[in-house]
Predict the structure.
Amino acid sequence: MAGTSEPHASAFSAAELEFLAEDDMIEIVPNLRMDTLNFISGDFGPFRPQIATQVPLWLAVALKRRGKCTIRSPEWMSVDKLTQVLEAERDSEKFQPLPFHYVEISRLLFDHARDDIPDIYMVRSLIEDIKDVRFHKIGTGLEIISKERTYALRLKNLSAMEANIIRPFVTRALETFYKLGSSDMIKESDQAPNRQPQTTNRGPRRQLKDR
Amino acid sequence: MKIRTMKLRDAHKSDDSSSLCSVLWASNGDHIVTSSSSDNAICIHDAITPSNAPKFLRNHREGVTALALSPNSTCLASGSIDHSVKLYKFPGGNFESNITRFTLPIRAVAFNKSGSILAAAGDDEGIKLVNTIDGTIARVLKGHKGSVTCLAFDPKNEYLASLDSLGTVIYWELQSGSTLHVLKAIAPNNGSDVSVMNILAWSPDGELLAVPGLKNDVVMYDRDTAEKLFSLRGDHVQPICFLSWSPNGKYIASSGLDKQILIWDVDKKQDIERQKFSECISCMSWKPQGNALAVIDVMGKYGVWEPAVPSTMKSPTEDIPNLYSKSRHDFLLFDEGEEEPSASGSLSDLNEDTHGEFEEPSRKRLRRQSNYDDDAWDQDCNDELESIPKVEVHKKASYGKKDNPNGKSGSRKLMVAADQKMQEAFQPGATPAQPGKRHFICYNMLGSITTMEHDGYSHIEIDFHDTSSGPRVPAMTDYFGFTMASLNEKGSAFANPCKGDKNMSTLMYRPFSSWANNSEWSMRFEGEEVRAIALGSGWVAAITSLNFLRIFTEGGLQRHILCLDGPVVTAVGNKDELAIVTHVSPSLPTDEQMLEFRVFNIPHGSQTLRGRLPSTPGSSLTWFGFSEEGQLSSFDSKGVLRVFTNQFGSTWLPLFSASKLKKSEENIWVTGLNGSKLFCVVCKSPETFPQCTPKPVLTLLDLSFPLASSDLGADNLENEFMMNNMHLSRIQRSIEERAASGHDTTSLDDEAFNLETSLDRCILRLIASCCNGDKLVRAIELVKLLSLEKSVRGAIKLVTALKLPNLAERFNDILEEKLLSETVGNSKPKCNGSSKTSEVSRVASSIDHPLPSTTCFLGKRNAEELTKDRNGKIEEKEKTIELKASGKLKDQSVQVNKVAKFDQLTSARPANPFAKAATNQPNSSLFDSLKKINKGSNL
């Protein structure tokens, strides 16, 4: 994990997130006959031509690259569904439930399985729109941190990529607020202006994480 | 005779001049359709609640002169002064297409009895016969001097009668398109008056043609000879302008220019009822049910005269003649035309011809040298037109066959054959031809063969589902118009029906790879026609219209010719075996097809099986084939899958029923099956078959017996129990067979043992649910079915835990009995006692005992393994039960669930040592756990 060495820059890179997203399951229609594959993460298959089966995304992409399958685009990636989500996203304050890795999955599918997604341009632009709307919401939503004293943020249905982007800022901001608000700090600042932050900060920060 | 008055309602505006109006009943009697030649709107009135506002269809630019409804009332056709003929959906009224155009106003339109052909005519020269599916013009009939005012298809679909404004009647023969009889000036000459039309009508049984006579009478002409038979003369003082047969043909209504309607009893040649109106009635229509007549006058006012026939007399809709018994003969005459997807193509060729182009793509190869003079063209036309009735037969067959279980085929433009008849021959896995689209002519678990008609030729593509191992076969151009195909690993066979005299039925075989060049071969059949083909390892079979089964070798050698008992329905090959389904007799009045199947072993030259093929009443066979294990299976249009087994002296078991799935909006198109799953394509209703693109994705459905709803409420368990029993009996049979032939049965024994343990597990769960449901007798019966001693002990522990000591005691007795009989059985080999356990299971269980098994055909090593394996499992099971027994029984059902879960766990052999035991956490990567921590930190 990138964050262990340096606590404040705990963000993953996009590639790392994509790697994580590749463990999500997706349905493929193989065009080859193959026995069950035994992997550390589980058994997949058996594969029979024209019979749909569930595999992790990385396997689906690997098979797709070799022309051994077609990927069935997930249900939430249909134009109808996405239009609904986009509308709901615009209408309501809350975040709509989408797969945790929706950004990464759609990106992977756009890259590797263009021909398997019906109305790909429409789907792509819808996902872009949804992404924009959600980021905008996050941006405006973060204002509440500064308005009143906040120790934690609850953002339901936040996706991996979104959480990743706001994580460094939010954690640091919350930490700072906590520090400023804690009585220790006030005392410390009263007694010793030259603070020794790293060691004393450890405790409160952990508490925050557990919450 | 009394004279009453009738109130008429305004339907169409009329500008004070009389106009030609039309009225029609929908076949269910719910709607009345009216139109007027001075109004561009067609009006659909609700006949049940007349207060509802009618629906107006304003698609025509000028007045509507003619209306026709297809016989099943799903399609409405209208002809207009604006020179166009339009089709609408009915009763919705959505505009569908401009099916044809003329250069002058239309005066008459008519559907044939199957709804596949629409005839339209008017002031133009010539009557156009239009194919309603694709709008191609099948034929133009020329011969009338005046404008045609009425067209009538003979109910038996052999003739078309037409009448022009000069009073000339022409009988056309549909098959050849030639004129049979021309009766000049037998009807009133209306000259150029278009407000009244000359009319003619076939009696519903097709035996009489009624035409208004010159002496204000109705004259009846004979169907075949066109002789004048008799006339109905009475109180009409002016010529008759409209007449209509009652649906049963007993009465005829005639309206005259003298503004009255008379109803005649045709048998007595006597008028029985009359009605005076203020205006001349220009059109009438009998209600298809009940006793009512809809009328419309020249001012566009319509009304319903009810009862039209005095209620003391026989209803006009009683005893409607059933044409079916007679017409079956006709169908048989034409049914060479089955499975003829290119028919529409040939019709479109004709379409070009009628526009003066003598270039005929489909004929090129046959008559490249010939000069196209008029005679040749005529002959060509005749050839082509012969296919018209065939087309209808084919469509009826295909749609009747695919009749979906809900009968929701109303959205189809074509009628579903109302009367059940002997089903046509078909190839399993073929879909009906659709103009302009690719369709399957063969689909099996190996691959598919698709074809698409294009410019008179077809392009055939062969695709294997498994693209990596199947051979790549180049697309081929098909000059024959193949409609049947069969595919296996080695090659593909094709066949086409004959089309006319020139295009003989051909069988072709293409191997996918061969060491020799030119190993493709074809056979031509003179005077007979291929109906079904099948392919096996090293042989090709073709069943022909002469009921011959012809068997060819892979290289094209004619090997055998056998006679079959009846017309073939379908045939399918699997390795050495050929299965054929034939008709035994006409279908029963209860709509049951009488079918018979036979299985031949081709290399041995033997017939291994023969028997009647069961079917659901009202259904037809839609798929027939072998399962992956080689079991014969059939699927019918009611969605019931049957599999042939050796149980009970060779019977069919119903192993799947689509109606049990309770998904009425889905139709199942079967492609194959294996021991436990049905492979099919699920089509959204009303589609009954898949399209070629995108490639259909197969769905796996579990096989299940159509069990009755039991009071036990453990349907799944009961089904599993029966399935396991079935599999077990199959495996035991094959073990016996292999043992008899001296083969090694080790692998099968393993399988049998696994099945037995899973069967025991299932029985234990059933016992638990029986105990919970307080069905103790059933529990005892189940215990007797347990095959392993350990399972019986497990059952005893189970019931003890469930606090049923009474039952436990009985179980103990059963166990002792069993042990006793086993010791006896072991000391006396081949003693088939009353024990229900099979030989094999006894062998398996006897291993536990110190007594040596003399009947054992297991290897010693294997036996040891088995014992170890089994002991391990059973011990585990016992442990759970003990655990459970020690705990207080809080909720029995929960505990049973626990047992079930545990059983599943033990049964799931960890194939992968690294696999996680719990399946709900498949991702165990380092990153994942980190991710979780991170997620937690975000909260």
